[in-house]
Amino acid sequence: MEESSSKIWTHWFEIPVLEMDRARDFFETIFETSIEIHDMGSLKMGIFPHGEVGCALCQNEWYQPGQEGPLVYMDAGPDLQNVLDRVEEAGGKVIVPKKLISEEHGFMAVFIDTEGNRLALHSMK
Questions:
Q1: CA 3 to chain centre
Q2: Rounded distance between C-alpha atoms, residue 96 and residue 102, angstroms
Q3: Residue 121: strand, helix, or coil
Q4: 10-33 confidence digits (pLDDT tens)
Q5: Selection from 6, 24, 7 nearest residue 15 by Cα
Q6: What is the mean pLDDT of residues 81-94?
């Protein structure tokens, strides 16, 4: 098999939602940000502010929230505890509290959002 010189980069991910307003309120609260809603007829997208890697809340019949499948790690800034402290008061549930991955790789935590999705947070401290 020929070795490829290209790398696989994450550049976009979508979080399934059932109720866009509820999901937007949850993520705006825990990340203290604004999410722009785009209504495209059969698809609603809530676009997070982003740089190289983008993220959107997506509401449509083929998007079903759940706790199975890939686990997406979201950048929680310098200290994920600040974001994690807002999860439960915003209606989510912390299922893995902040813990050290390693000195080199920082910290992680896992939570369930208001839609039932399992997501993770990452920070270096």
A1: 32
A2: 16
A3: strand
A4: 789 999 999 999 999 999 999 999
A5: 24
A6: 98
For residue 100, pLDDT beyond 70: yes
User: Do 23 and 35 contact (CB within 8 A), yes or no?
Assistant: no
Structure tokens, 88: 């439960």
Query: Which residues are CB-neighbours of 84 under 8 A, at least 6 positions away?
Result: 76, 94, 97, 98, 109, 111, 121
- pLDDT (mean) for 116-123: 96
Tell me the two tokens of residue 18: 């059932």
Read off the pTM. Answer: 0.86
61-78 average pLDDT score: 92
In total, the chain counts a number of residues equal to 125
Which helix (H) or strand (E) segment holds residue 38: the answer is strand 36-39
CA neighbours within 13 Å on the CB side: how many for 33? 16
pLDDT at position 1: 47
Q: Which residues contact 122 (CB under 8 A, 6 or more apart)?
A: 73, 74, 75, 76, 80, 106, 107, 108
| Cα 37 to Cα 23: distance, rounded to the nearest angstrom | 11
Instruction: Report how far residue 7's alpha carbon sits from residue 16's, in angstroms, rounded to the nearest whole number.
Output: 26
